[in-house]
Design a protein that fits this description.
Strand content: under 5%
Distance between the termini: 5 Å
Number of strands: 0
Largest sheet: none
Number of domains: 2
Number of helices: 14
Helix content: over 70%
Order of helices and strands: HHHHHHHHHHHHHH
Shape: globular
Oligomer: single chain
Length: about 425
C-alpha cells in the first residue's frame, strides 16, 4: 500500500506543479509583457543550462548511494554541501563570464540582470541534491511536500510582486533568488537534523565516496541526456524543416504526451530507491510494476486519443486541430516509452551498467534519420510516427538488456506465482504494490 500511495501522491504533486508552472507563465506573460517575459525566460534558461550541465548527475547518485546504504547519509550530505557551494559558485562565474564574452547571447538584456539569475545556481544545486537524498531515504511524502511548498511560495510571491506591487523583471529575479536560498536553508536544516540523529556527529566529506558518486552520476547523466535528445529532437527538426507554425502545432501534441508521461515518471521516482535497496534490484517486483504501468498507460493513452479532438479544439482553437492526428501517432510511442521507464529504472538500480547508457544511442540515431526522411514528406505526422518507432526500439533494447541482466531464469521471472497473478488483476489497480 505504501508504494502505491507514494506513487499516487507523487503523480498528484507533479500535476499540481504543472499547474503552478502554468500560473507562473500566465502571470509573467500578462504583467511583464512580451519583452519582459522574453528577458526572464532567456535569463532563467541560461541559469538552467548551467545547472543541468554542471550537476554531474550527483542528484541521481545521491538517491542511489543512500538507498543502498542509509548509513552513508552523513558523508554523502557533506559532499553535497561542498559540491553545491564550490561547483555552484564556479557555474555562476562561468555563466557570467560566457555572457560577458559573448554579449550576443543576451541581446538587449543588461548583463547585471544575469547576476541574480545565476546566483540561484548554488542554492538550486543544494536543494536538488538534498531532495534526492530524501527520496533515497524513502521520505517521498516529505520530498513531495517540500517541492509543492517551494513552488507554491514562489507563485504566491510572484502574484504579490506583479499584481500588487507592480514589480519588473529585476524584482522577479530577486524573488527567485530568495525562494532558492530559503529552500536551501530548509533542506539543509532537515538533512542536518537527520545526520545528527544518526549519532555520527558533524558531517565529513569523503573524496573516495565523491569519486564513486561521480562515476555513477556521469553514467546516469549521459543516459538522461541521450533520452532527452530522443524525446526533443523531433521538435527541433520540425521547426527546422517545416517552420515555426508547424512546430507550434506539433508542440501541443508533445505537451499532451508530456502530461501522460508524468505517471510513469512518478512511478519510476518511487520505484528506484526500493529496487536499489536490493542492490541487484528486484526483477519480479519490477516486472509487476512494469505490467501495471503498461495497463495504466493504455488507459491514459486511449482516453487521450478519444478526447484529443474536442479538448484541443476547445482550448487552442481549430487552427491547432492538425495536432490531433500527430498525437494519435505519438500515443503508441509514449506508451512504450512509459513502460520502458520502469525497465530503465531496474537497470539503474543495478548500478547503471555501461550498456544501459549505450542502449540509448541507436534509437537516437534512428529517430533523427526517420525525422529527416519523414518530416519533409508527411510533416508533423511523420515526426510523430518516427518518434513512436524510436520509442519502441528503446523499449525493445531495454527489455533485451534487462533479460540479460536478470539473475536466474527469465522464465521464472515472467511466469509469476499464482498468488502474484491475482495481484496483477486489472481490478486490483495499484493496491498490490506493497
Amino acid at each position: 500500500m505504501r508504494f502505491s500511495g507514494d506513487v499516487a501522491a507523487t503523480f498528484a504533486s507533479r500535476l499540481i506543479l504543472v499547474g503552478f508552472g502554468v500560473a507562473s507563465s500566465v502571470l509573467t506573460a500578462r504583467y511583464l509583457g512580451p519583452v519582459g517575459r522574453g528577458s526572464l525566460a532567456t535569463l532563467t534558461a541560461l541559469a538552467g543550462i548551467g545547472l543541468q550541465l554542471g550537476n554531474l548527475g550527483l542528484h541521481a547518485s545521491n538517491t542511489y548511494q543512500v538507498s543502498r546504504r542509509p548509513d552513508l547519509l552523513s558523508p554523502v550530505w557533506a559532499n553535497s554541501l561542498r559540491t553545491a557551494s564550490y561547483l555552484g559558485l564556479f557555474l555562476t562565474l562561468l555563466t557570467l563570464g560566457c555572457a560577458a564574452l559573448f554579449p550576443g547571447v543576451l541581446g538587449e538584456i543588461p548583463l547585471p540582470l544575469l547576476l541574480p539569475a545565476t546566483l540561484c545556481i548554488p542554492f538550486q544545486l543544494l536543494v536538488l541534491f538534498g531532495l534526492n537524498l530524501l527520496v533515497g531515504l524513502g521520505r517521498v511524502p516529505l520530498f513531495n511536500s517540500l517541492e509543492l511548498i517551494f513552488r507554491g511560495l514562489g507563485v504566491a510571491g510572484l502574484f504579490i510582486l506583479l499584481v500588487v506591487l507592480h514589480g519588473d523583471v529585476r524584482w522577479v529575479l530577486i524573488l527567485n533568488l530568495m525562494v532558492a536560498a530559503g529552500g536551501a536553508v530548509v533542506v539543509a536544516r532537515i538533512l542536518g537534523g537527520m545526520v545528527r540523529k544518526t549519532g555520527t556527529g558533524e558531517s565529513r566529506t569523503s573524496f573516495a565516496l565523491f569519486r564513486s558518486s561521480v562515476g555513477y552520476g556521469a553514467k546516469a547523466y549521459v543516459a538522461a541526456l541521450l533520452a532527452y535528445l530522443i524525446v526533443r529532437s523531433d521538435m527541433l527538426l520540425v521547426n527546422m524543416l517545416r517552420g515555426a507554425s508547424d512546430a507550434g502545432v506539433y508542440s501541443i501534441a508533445v505537451q499532451i504526451t508530456d502530461l501522460i508521461y508524468l505517471l510513469p515518471m512518478s512511478i519510476g521516482l518511487v520505484l528506484f530507491p526500493r529496487l536499489t535497496r536490493h542492490h541487484e534490484g528486484d526483477p519480479v517486483f519490477a516486472l509487476k510494476v512494469a505490467r501495471h504501468t503498461a495497463f495504466l498507460m493504455l488507459i491514459l493513452c486511449a482516453a487521450a486519443a478519444i478526447l484529443a479532438h474536442p479538448v484541443i479544439k476547445l482550448l487552442y482553437g481549430e487552427s491547432f486541430l492538425p495536432a490531433v492526428k500527430a498525437l494519435w501517432w505519438l500515443l503508441p510511442g509514449i506508451w512504450a516509452y512509459g513502460v520502458c521507464n520502469q525497465v530503465a529504472t531496474q537497470l539503474a538500480s543495478a548500478g547503471m551498467p555501461l550498456p544501459a547508457v549505450l542502449v540509448w544511442i541507436p534509437p537516437l540515431l534512428l529517430n533523427v534519420i526517420l525525422n529527416l526522411a519523414w518530416i519533409p514528406r508527411w510533416g508533423i505526422q511523420g515526426a510523430a510516427a518516427s518518434s513512436s518507432v524510436a520509442y519502441f526500439l528503446v523499449l525493445a533494447l531495454h527489455l533485451f538488456l534487462w533479460k540479460r541482466r536478470i539473475r536466474g531464469s527469465w522464465v521464472d521471472a515472467l511466469i509469476l506465482r499464482r498468488s502474484d497473478l491475482k495481484d496483477l488483476g486489472a481490478s486490483a489497480g495499484m493496491e498490490s504494490w506493497s
